[in-house]
Design brief:
The complex is a heterodimer of chains A (319) and B (230). With 319 residues, chain A is of the alpha/beta class. Chain A contains eleven helices and eleven strands. Chain A folds into two domains: 7-212, 3-Layer(aba) Sandwich (Rossmann fold), CATH 3.40.50; 217-250 and 258-318, no CATH class. Chain A has helices at 45-51, 74-77, 89-92, 99-110, 115-128, 134-137, 147-159, 177-194, 205-211, 229-234, 239-246; strands at 7-16, 19-29, 34-38, 60-68, 82-85, 165-169, 197-202, 214-219, 222-228, 296-298, 301-303. In chain A, strand 1 (7-16) and strand 2 (19-29) form a beta hairpin. In chain A, helix 4 packs across helix 5 and helix 7 (147-159) packs parallel to helix 8 (177-194). Chain A is globular and about 65 Å long. Chain A starts with 6 loop residues before the first strand and ends in a 16-residue tail after the last strand. In chain A, 46% of the residues are buried. Chain B has 230 residues and is α/β, with parallel strands linked by helices. Chain B has a domain at 6-97 and 163-227: P-loop containing nucleotide triphosphate hydrolases (Rossmann fold). Helices cover 31% and strands 26% of the residues of chain B. The longest helix of chain B is centred in the C-terminal third of the chain and has 18 residues, at 177-194. The two termini of chain B are 26 Å apart. The relative contact order of chain B is 0.20. The chains are: A alpha/beta (319), B alpha/beta (230). Chains A and B meet through helix 8 of A and helix 5, helix 6 and helix 7 of B.
């Protein structure tokens, strides 16, 4: 564990019975960085994001460790040092309490302050996320807010106690491009304002490119590639990362067909002994089907791929 | 010069006092992809529903294969419906969770009275294969398939009655990146093979640039610009 890390994840494993959905993840989140976790549905990114806050499904078994700086268990610091922006802003707020009351309750759940003080902090947080006339709006119910305002209120809720780490789980999935940009800008501003690191879980590589400092690319519950965004997305070394990037429609000359990855991501529990990506990987050799590759440091990032040493960059040309 | 496949003039859709689509006009030729782009609530999907006559427009004309649809009764529309088929955004939501994929694809054939027990199953297997699904996936129910596979099944069902026009409402927005490319390629191949016209609703600019021959931008119910990707 690097001493400056705000949050350290070491060999995290999450299993449902005999089926492992997260299969040995290790990474640190550094102060004030935007750390993206990217992957396709079923890769385990949402499970991982929630495990960072000590939220795991009841029937799951968790191994490995997640620790905040100083060794604290994040579950005990949830809402205080680490907070969640959940995926669905509409269902994240109680429909039967005014928004300001919900924020004030969040304040009083972690701080011994007067109702009046909690109220003032709630209004200040709403004001900070750009809710107009925040003192009055604090008395309104979620159904009186527009969709965009509810999204803002949820972000205010996550930042009201000035946490060290904000975990945002697909905060922009259901939004169109304009709103997506607005929400991401708001998250960035709020992160700046309270001095927090942001863990941004997304399936959208454009969001990663535009907003993150470092990225963890997950495939089938493991890290395929982990490192600075400009290296990982600019010069991918894991075939999965490269294939994913190649499959994105790009600006530039139009192509009638995109270089699509064949097949679909594997279901947890349906994995062979080898690299989980091997059945879809155009570079796979016999060894890839036999052993799971271990992460290794290559070219300023970490890559889990047996072929990383013998396939030169840019590997896109080999796909 | 032949008629366009679809000719929409002065289309207006209202929901109570709200005008969702405000005098929208465009044409679409066979074999062409016209993208409708714009933010949430700009009227893209309302335009799609009105073109399909699933929601009757308040004003305007919709000519499809040279026939005016807005003046037809529901009964008169029925024989034309197979020729214009929707594909929706949510791959799971567009299929009944209780039906096997095979039955979902057979349903439009049955509804159109085109089903017969001798060659119906073979037609379904052919459709599944056409969209890149293993025939064995016909035995599955939607929750047993991935999102990409469900979307392919939805496309197979849309193709069952040999349409000329597909109205695709955000067909790849819910799909993962590595799967999305496969579905976009499938749509391109089907268009090349069958000469389908696509009205393609999408708010992802990169996808729009990739698929569209022409793009119409909408905002607050009106067309604000029209352009062609390079």
């Amino acid at each position: 564990m690097r001493s400056e890390a705000l949050l350290s994840v070491c060999d995290l494993r999450i299993a449902f019975g005999a089926v492992e959905a997260v299969r040995g993840l290790s990474f640190d989140v550094l102060p004030r960085e935007v750390f993206a976790v990217v992957g396709e549905s079923g890769a385990g990114k949402s499970l991982t994001a929630r495990a960072l806050l000590g939220i795991v499904p009841r029937d799951a078994t968790v191994n490995g460790s997640v620790r905040l700086r100083g060794g604290a268990d994040p579950a005990a610091e949830r809402g205080r040092r680490i907070a969640l922006v959940p995926q669905d802003a509409l269902s994240a707020l109680s429909p039967v309490h005014p928004v300001g009351d919900q924020l004030a309750a969040a304040v009083r759940s972690v701080r011994r302050v007067s109702r009046k003080e909690a109220r003032a902090r709630a209004v200040a947080a709403l004001d900070r996320v750009g809710i107009p006339d925040a003192a009055r709006r604090a008395r309104a119910y979620p159904h009186e807010y527009s969709g965009g305002m509810r999204q803002r209120a949820v972000i205010a809720m996550a930042t009201v106690n000035e946490p060290d780490v904000v975990v945002a789980d697909e905060p922009t999935t259901a939004l169109d491009e304009d709103r997506r940009e607005r929400v991401l800008r708001l998250l960035a501003e709020q992160r700046e304002a309270v001095g927090a690191a942001l863990v941004l879980v997304t399936h959208d590589l454009d969001v990663v490119r535009d907003h993150a400092d470092r990225v963890l690319v997950m495939y089938a519950g493991r890290a395929a590639e982990l490192g600075p965004v400009e290296r990982v997305l600019g010069h991918p070394r894991a075939p999965y990362t490269a294939g994913l990037l190649a499959a994105l429609p790009q600006d530039g000359p139009r192509r009638r067909r995109l270089p699509a990855l064949t097949g679909t991501p594997p279901a947890p529990g349906a994995l062979g002994p080898g690299c989980a990506f091997a059945p879809r990987c155009p570079l796979a050799v016999a060894a890839c089907h036999e052993d799971e590759p271990e992460p290794q440091a290559v070219d300023g990032r970490t890559v889990a791929c047996h072929r990383v040493a013998d396939v030169p960059e840019p590997i896109r040309e080999f796909l | 010069m032949t008629d366009p496949l679809l000719d929409v003039r002065g289309l207006v859709v209202r929901y109570g006092p709200v005008t969702a689509v405000d005098h929208v006009s465009f044409t679409l030729d066979a074999g062409e992809t016209l993208a409708l782009d714009g933010p949430s609530g700009c009227g893209k999907s309302s335009t799609a529903l009105a073109v399909l006559q699933l929601r009757r427009p308040h004003a305007g004309r919709v000519r499809f294969e040279g026939r005016e649809l807005t003046s037809l009764t529901d009964r008169e529309l029925r024989p034309l419906r197979p020729r214009m088929q929707p594909v929706f955004q949510d791959p799971y939501g567009s299929l009944s969770p209780r039906h096997r994929i095979r039955d979902a694809v057979a349903e439009p054939l049955k509804a159109q009275g085109r089903w017969n027990a001798d060659d119906g199953p073979a037609r379904v297997a052919e459709l599944l294969e056409k969209v890149g699904l293993d025939p064995s996936s016909g035995d599955r129910r939607p929750h047993e398939l991935s999102g990409g596979q469900c979307q392919r099944a939805g496309i197979a069902r849309a193709l069952a009655c040999e349409p000329r026009l597909l109205v695709l409402d955000e067909p790849v927005s819910a799909l993962d990146a590595s799967v999305r490319a496969g579905v976009l390629n499938l749509l391109a191949d089907l268009q090349d093979e069958l000469g389908l016209g696509y009205l393609f609703i999408c708010h992802d600019r990169a996808v729009v640039r990739h698929v569209a021959d022409r793009v119409i931008e909408m905002r607050e119910g009106r067309i604000t610009s029209e352009w062609r990707p390079r």
